[in-house]
Specification:
GO terms for molecular function: 5-diphosphoinositol pentakisphosphate 1-kinase activity; ATP binding; inositol hexakisphosphate kinase activity. Belongs to the histidine acid phosphatase family. VIP1 subfamily. It catalyses: 5-diphospho-1D-myo-inositol 1,2,3,4,6-pentakisphosphate + ATP + H(+) = 1,5-bis(diphospho)-1D-myo-inositol 2,3,4,6-tetrakisphosphate + ADP; 1D-myo-inositol hexakisphosphate + ATP = 1-diphospho-1D-myo-inositol 2,3,4,5,6-pentakisphosphate + ADP. This protein is of the alpha+beta class. It is about 40% helix and about 15% strand. It has 29 helices and 20 strands. Strands 4, 9, 10, 15, 16, 17, 19 and 20 form an 8-stranded mixed sheet that branches. Strand 11 and strand 12 form a beta hairpin. Helix 14 runs antiparallel to helix 18. The longest helix has 29 residues.
């Protein structure tokens, strides 16, 4: 496959343990520490088909840096071995390299732990992270009776008249686009009478569907999906004249789009990955890469089903492991999809509806919300904590300001010069994922940032205006407040150049309301927050406990082994003991629990896959100072709902009846800080780190300590103030990420035993998890390489010449 410049498409992949051994054999045979060679993968096997020797990789600075380090070590080993171990493994000019203007997006918090004690080793890093900056999520709903659309529904649901259809693939969406183009009127009819209003709105919605489907010039990626659900049926004679059959005559079409990771979102995720590499592990930045390259770092990354979450995970992995190249290959190689653990609110839908109903009563009652007593010791314990006292007045103001902004966008959409589309090429969302900078041409042309034209921008604001307040029923819909706030924040950051009057005022009003509404949607008081949180995050909490338990068992196993080895002198060690020692460094892969890989195609596992082992460094052959140091990293990328749910369970778990009398996991000041942290914004995260005190007895509860930190994610202050830093961030359309903050007092000691006791009542039991499956990057994966390649091609826009018809 070749790119638009005619060059072969290249991307990084994971080598299997067998392939790594083959690489070592090639290196040994040719006696070259830097040696290029080609591997051919076929039917689950790998073959060396060419050895290139000293072949350099074009345009890869990392390759030259790595080669230089290897050469330097060879010279030092040969002529100055006393210096070889003293000189750091990185190049001298890399140590104090200045931070680039586009980097440094992560701000320091209060949660960075100091030096790693001599007796305390980091054993596990677990992070649950929200996705990066995205475009507003949007939805178009319309009832359709057109024969073309009803026939399309039957075509893709197997001809079943009462079954709904989901259209996601390029072929399906192209069929829908072709049908929609034939149904959209060529001119916009006026509304001469009230009876024509519905026809007018239907035509406008079809026009919006067409505009969304035509974005980018071709279908790629995972950002548009359509549901067709039959509503009414009639009996018709069968075509063969024998009896009758049902046929749908009306269906509900729901088009979901938007919510795409922006250039800023990718930059945020990649920078946060770099921040983790430099601050969460011993060794000041190079430490993690050193662990990773010497079989002492056990890394797994999980993501929900949403495209923005998957791409955030891939961008983070790129920064964490200092990878190069496109995000899609990193996604396919490193990120596992687990929608059952990281997606969905179905388990708590009834409780959330109750919370929203109560919230609506408090806000729309018109009375001052006197429940909030900010002077009390625990203001978060009352119903509706955090809601502004004048919420009812603010809601009225929100409607007025929304109308004002919508009208300005309507004028822009009406005056939009359609000839601009000939000057500015179609926006391609898939290609945009490779960028970390803004589209200068679109901004200069006075167009909205990203893929959105003025027509879609107006449709977004018009829908918010219509749904926020029903003028016929004189009724507010408070569930629209987060969406209004979302749109405000997006346009204030990405479309400031359009100079929409009153947008900043609307943002402030929406922010006041959203800061009260959003946290209370997950429970109107702490007990309800705990109940809802435990239902949404039950599976995730169970997996976190499994991660911590597996780390503890592995650490104890290694400690026992080391203790036994220390009791025997080398001369007394038997061959059998030596074999047992080596076997301990092949750890069963018992904690990989996935419902699917990144591929949507089910991959059958061979019988041998369950027996696959995971390799660890054997200290006897290690050329490192701390061969016993081994860190397990588990990263979970998800959406706002799971972050809120996890935080709520962690801070309120002691309120459960089974844990009466237990102290909170967090100290009081941290609880107050979390209460005042209204929004868990893009890239907000919670980190659990487990340390082992090697000077404490194995059976002592203080052997393993848990440290919890959190970050509220993107810092909104540049949107709220005017200074040089704010202007610079505005220019790049990117907000900085706040560093982690402590949730425990300095010197406090949260044991793993206490952590398990507090969380277990809300977590899925380990026995309820499905059996282990094989990681995507190893055997079984390459045996089905055709399916993986197909997935890769669908995700990544290779050389596609899109024409104006979007075909």
């Amino acid at each position: 496959m070749r790119n638009p410049d005619g060059k072969e498409v290249r991307y990084p992949v994971l080598l299997t343990p067998t392939e790594k051994q083959m690489a070592r054999d090639v290196y040994t045979a040719f006696r070259q520490a830097v040696c290029g060679f080609d591997l051919l993968r076929s039917d689950g096997c790998s073959y060396v088909c060419d050895v290139n020797g000293w072949s350099f990789v074009k345009n890869s600075y990392k390759y030259y840096d790595d080669a230089a380090c290897v050469l330097r070590k060879m010279f030092l080993d040969a002529r100055a071995s006393h210096l070889s171990s003293a000189i750091p493994p990185t190049l001298p000019w890399k140590l104090n390299e200045p931070v680039q203007p586009s980097e440094g997006l992560t701000r320091q918090g209060s949660g960075i732990i100091g030096t790693f004690g001599q007796s305390e080793e980091l054993r596990c890093v677990i992070a649950v992270i929200r996705h990066g900056d995205r475009t507003p999520k949007q939805k178009v709903k319309l009832k359709v009776t057109e024969e073309k659309l009803l026939s399309l529904m039957l075509k893709y649901n197997g001809g079943r008249p009462r079954s709904e259809t989901k259209l996601k693939s390029a072929i399906q969406l192209q069929d829908l686009l072709d049908a929609t183009r034939m149904l959209v009127p060529r001119t916009r009819p006026g509304r001469e009478s009230d009876s024509e209003t519905e026809d007018f709105e239907h035509a406008e919605k079809l026009r919006q569907v067409k505009a969304v489907l035509e974005e980018g010039g071709h279908f790629s990626g995972i950002y548009r999906k359509v549901q067709l659900k039959p509503l009414k049926w009639v009996k018709v004679a069968k075509s063969n004249g024998e009896g009758e059959e049902e046929r749908p005559v009306e269906a509900l079409m729901v088009l979901k789009y938007g919510g795409v990771l922006t250039h800023a979102g990718r930059k945020q995720a990649e920078e946060l990955g770099r921040y983790f590499r430099n601050n969460m592990y011993p060794g000041e930045g190079t430490g993690l890469l050193r662990l990773h390259s010497t079989y002492r770092h056990d890394l797994k990354i999980y993501s929900s089903d949403e495209g923005r979450v998957q791409m955030s995970a891939a961008a983070f992995a790129k920064g964490l492991l200092d990878l190069e190249g496109q995000l899609t290959p990193i996604l396919v190689s490193l990120v596992s999809k687990d929608s059952s653990m990281l997606d969905g609110l179905d388990n708590a839908s009834i409780e959330m509806e109750e919370a929203k109903h109560r919230l609506n009563e408090i806000i729309t009652s018109g009375a001052k919300t006197v429940q909030n007593d900010e002077s009390s010791e625990s203001p978060w314990m009352v119903d509706g904590a955090g809601l502004p006292s004048n919420a009812s007045e603010l809601l009225t103001k929100l409607v007025q300001l929304t109308k004002k902004v919508t009208e300005q966008v309507r004028i822009l959409a009406k005056d939009e010069d359609e000839e601009l589309t000939d000057v500015i090429p179609p926006y391609d969302q898939a290609r945009a994922l490779g960028k970390t900078n803004i589209d200068v041409d679109r901004i200069a042309a006075g167009l909205p940032c990203g893929s959105e034209g003025f027509l879609l921008m107006y449709a977004r604001w018009k829908k918010l205006e219509r749904d926020l307040y029903n003028e016929r029923k004189l009724r507010f819909d408070i569930t629209q407040i987060p969406d209004v706030y979302d749109s405000c924040k997006y346009d204030l950051l990405h479309n400031a150049h359009l100079k929409l009057e009153g947008l900043d005022k609307l943002f402030k009003v929406a922010q006041l309301l959203a800061d009260g509404v959003i946290p209370n949607e997950y429970g109107i008081n702490p007990r309800q927050k705990l109940k809802i949180g435990s239902k949404i995050a039950r599976r995730l909490l169970g997996k976190l406990l499994i991660d911590l338990r597996n780390t503890r068992e592995e650490a104890i196993s290694v400690a026992d082994l080391k203790s036994n080895q220390d009791q025997h002198s080398p001369s007394m060690k038997t061959e059998k003991e030596d074999m047992e020692y080596q076997s301990k460094f092949y750890i069963k892969n018992d904690d990989v629990r996935r419902n699917s890989t990144t591929s949507n195609i089910s991959m059958e596992q061979d019988d041998d896959d369950d027996k696959e082992t995971k390799y660890r460094l054997d200290p006897k052959y290690a050329n490192v100072k701390t061969p016993e140091r081994h860190v397990r990293t588990r990263l979970y990328f998800t959406s706002e709902s799971h972050i809120h749910s996890l935080v709520n369970v962690l801070r309120y778990c002691n309120l459960d009846e089974s844990l009466q009398g237990e102290d909170s996991l967090f100290f009081h000041t941290a609880l107050d800080r979390l209460y005042r942290t209204k929004e868990l914004d893009y890239m907000s995260y919670i980190v659990l780190r487990m340390f082992e005190n090697t000077e404490v007895a194995l059976e002592d509860p203080k052997r393993f300590r848990i440290e919890i930190t959190f970050s509220r994610g993107a810092d909104l202050s540049p949107l709220e103030k005017i200074d040089s830093e704010a202007a610079s961030l505005h220019q790049e359309h990117t907000l900085p990420i706040m560093g982690p903050e402590r949730l425990q007092e300095v010197g406090s000691y949260l044991t793993l035993e206490k952590m398990e006791k507090m969380i277990r009542p809300f977590a899925m039991p380990a026995e309820d998890f499905p059996p282990p499956s094989t990681p995507a990057g190893f055997s079984g994966y390459f045996a089905k390489s055709a399916a993986v390649l197909e997935r890769l091609v669908n995700l990544w826009p290779f050389h596609k010449h899109a024409n104006s018809n979007g075909k």
